[in-house]
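notes to self, project folder thing:

trying the whole complex as one job this time. last attempt i did each chain seperately and stitching them together was a nightmare. two parts in total, labels are on each line so i dont mix them up again. if this works i'll redo the older ones the same way
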Amino acid sequence: MRQAPRGNVAEAARTDAVSPTGADAAGVATLAVLGAGAWGTVLAHLLAQNGHLVRLWCRSTDVAAAIGRTHRNPAYLPDLDLAPSIAATADVAEAAHGVDAVIMAVPTRAMRETLGRLPPVPAVVSASKGFAGDALTRMTELAAAAQPWAVVAALSGPNLAGEIAEGLPAAATLACSDAPFARRARTWLTRPTFRVYVSSDVAGVEACGALKNVVALAAGMLDGLGLGENAHAALLTRGLTELVRVGRALGGEERTFYGLAGVGDLIATCASTRSRNHQAGVRIARGDSVGEVLASGVTAEGLATVVHVHAYAAATGLDLPISREVYRVVYEHKRPLKAIRDLMARPPREE
Amino acid sequence: MRQAPRGNVAEAARTDAVSPTGADAAGVATLAVLGAGAWGTVLAHLLAQNGHLVRLWCRSTDVAAAIGRTHRNPAYLPDLDLAPSIAATADVAEAAHGVDAVIMAVPTRAMRETLGRLPPVPAVVSASKGFAGDALTRMTELAAAAQPWAVVAALSGPNLAGEIAEGLPAAATLACSDAPFARRARTWLTRPTFRVYVSSDVAGVEACGALKNVVALAAGMLDGLGLGENAHAALLTRGLTELVRVGRALGGEERTFYGLAGVGDLIATCASTRSRNHQAGVRIARGDSVGEVLASGVTAEGLATVVHVHAYAAATGLDLPISREVYRVVYEHKRPLKAIRDLMARPPREE
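result (full assembly):
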């Protein structure tokens, strides 16, 4: 493991004791990014470029060792030259010891277990998009349960990791009910090409981030079938309605659905061949089974999210036609073309 | 000119006198589509496929003659085999005589003059997207001024004409304050692959249809510069805010902005290489002057719309940063990259 210089870590920890900002006089924070997938790797890189002391936790000791040795992540974005100050480790407790915040970038299915291995930390920022169960438990709710003393926040927005790694411009939303923490975390993350906006609507931001992956599966199927931009746009418009319904049910606010973390993330995720959920939809439309998609190692969060959303809709009576059709295709062998047709053929209504 | 069978026209006209639906017992309507660009041509084709008596007015006598002879439009979508019953003519008065409705698909700059040449008609449906002046006069307002006795309506939505010509599925919104007419016109247009929804918010639908072309110019510039999907999605999110601001100022309703005619049309127009406004933006980003774009015969409505919107913002104080930057690039020689950077660099705000 590459270690952050011990002296600096100690200094950051000491300053923490006297400064409520959790950073030393120069504004240097000590931060752990948990999860070295594409998004976690890029976030660690952004934070380190801003001069913060960054530990990157990798599930695999081999990946941690490779990052320490080569400053590249062999598993994700292997061409990205990582800031050499990033300290990679395969030890969660070591990564999170004495930090100002942990940024959670693990797959949502691993969220609860990873949170359970953390020492007490002052703040947890979730960068993972999905739900933890059929009651649509949000990632920050898991974080708050695991660390009741911590500030919790969610980071979301149209953030295809590969583009950010290439230095292309992007914007994100940091949602937190603690405004001073949100402003501080914004300074950690903001780069000339990465703008961070602050929101107080954690539930709305997380609901959108989870739901858009389900719509992206449907958009991938539609695009894989070659149905065109008009149909794609109509599907996204209906998808936005579904984000709004679930987001409202979870207590989110209207303006969130129509902002970066809502429609913005929806557009980027559904447009891009870089989105794993969209890719998974394309592959399913072309005849691959879900088993094959999963076996190829792709983490398409929408495949798990749709199970929870489908169960939630059944329990609450919420009308979520896209989620229903995606569920039927993915888990009940419905033909994608039939599912898309059934979506399009719903009775006309007043708009 | 190919004539619609005279007997049927007479029958339709006669039935009109006794039936408030404006169609004969079999539901056959007599309709004029004015403007034989891509959209007008496809609309005429859809209506004729539904068995209606369709006259298609072409500005050019040569195009009218060619359509009559070959059932193809040599100028737009030349591969589309048009329904042979379409009667093409270069005479506006002849096209509009005794019809149940005219569908206006002329460039917005030609709208006022074309409306001025119409005989009295019972209904005018605008399928053109733009404003008539710096007060943002809408196309249906021009129609109502020209034909005070007529029902007026607007057709909008994510409707790239080329895709509809290929039979790919699409959905549209027909906006009209006269609900019975809207339902009737919906039956004229609806096809198995073309779904029509009804709205009462004419102002909102028209505002969105006009504004999205300006955002598409900006999106084309951004895409022409290769700035990626994240930035594209962030731009569209801000563009939606601009649709909402202008739409509200013109009396439109919130739900319209987030429906097919709002965010739906915005996504399709901004995504597609088939959109002339997006194409124009790409060309401008790559160094073509506006003069060159216009000289190539491209009708990119956004190039005119942005002039009116810019003047309107100056007069009303409305904050429309995308429209302002597009105006500066197109008419004040600002560099596209500088304009996009200035847009991205606006101070962070609470989302």
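what i see at first glance: Chain A has 17 helices and eight strands.
need to look closer tmrw
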